[in-house]
Write a structure and sequence with these properties.
The chain is of the alpha+beta class and 216 residues long. It has a single domain, classed as Beta Barrel (M1 Pyruvate Kinase, Domain 3). The protein has helices spanning 65-75, 121-127, 132-139, 172-180, 187-190, 199-215, and strands at 3-10, 13-14, 23-24, 28-30, 35-38, 41-42, 60-64, 88-91, 103-106, 109-116, 144-150, 152-154, 160-164. Strand 5 and strand 6 form a beta hairpin. The mean pLDDT is 96. It holds the Pfam family MOSC. Residues 29-163 form the MOSC domain. This is MOSC domain-containing protein. InterPro entries: Benzoxazolinone_Detox_Enz, MoCF_Sase_C, Pyrv_Knase-like_insert_dom_sf.
């Protein structure tokens, strides 16, 4: 069974690693009770870098508890729910293998998968791991961003129910592999999910597909 093991909200942090904005909400901590997920974001959370975060298609971010365990072993440091900057820590869900446009019911909310997370220097700085962006990219297990189709409260322990999956079969991991890992062999396959991508990301992925076909 796939469940939410933790719902996490930001503690705003400052420091050199936070970059040009000077503060970051990447440090998230487990909430004590139900949290409201809305079309504009997670109630009680904080988005500091609004240039790169906080769009409707980034209303919520999920990461797998299994991946936190992987990175804990890989890096020799204990990572706990919220440490990847995720609002939802999931168990048994394999969020990176979810399909673009896949719809989930969790608690009182309905969420729709919109795309992969892109690792950045703030993420590497928060974990204090030089070269983390490259390592995370090579590993390719990014977790997933979601839009909120139906607002509602989500709590730790809520079951995840898949409501629908698009026929194109394109996984979050495959979009990430094409756009950041040079997997041009996936171009034709990933093209099938373009209608389900947010407009801004659709343009980026379409350009990558186009250049892959020109050089093929």
């Amino acid at each position: 069974m796939s469940v939410v093991s933790s719902v996490n909200l930001a503690v705003v942090r400052t420091g050199e690693w936070t970059g040009r904005v000077g503060k970051s909400g990447i440090d998230k901590r487990p909430a004590d009770g139900p949290v409201l997920f809305t079309e504009s974001g997670v109630r009680g959370d904080a988005v500091c870098d609004t240039k790169h975060h906080g769009a409707w298609y980034q209303a919520a971010y999920a990461f797998d508890a299994e991946e936190l365990a992987f990175w804990s072993a890989e890096l020799g440091k204990e990572l706990v729910p919220g440490n990847a900057g995720e609002n939802l820590t999931l168990t048994g869900a394999d969020s990176t293998s979810a399909l673009i446009g896949e719809r989930w019911a969790i608690g009182g909310a309905v969420l729709r998968v919109t795309g992969p997370r892109q690792p950045c220097r703030v993420f590497a700085g928060f974990w204090d791991i030089p070269g983390l962006v490259k390592k995370f990219t090579q590993h390719g297990r990014t977790g997933a961003y979601f839009a909120v189709e139906q607002p509602g409260e989500i709590s730790a322990g809520d079951e995840i129910r898949v409501l629908s999956r698009p026929d194109h079969g394109v996984q979050v991991a495959e979009v990430f592999a094409l756009t950041t890992r040079g997997r041009t062999d996936l171009a034709d396959h990933v093209a099938g999910c373009l209608p389900d991508l947010p407009e801004k990301w659709r343009a980026t992925v379409a350009a990558k597909i186009g250049s892959s076909r020109v050089t093929a």
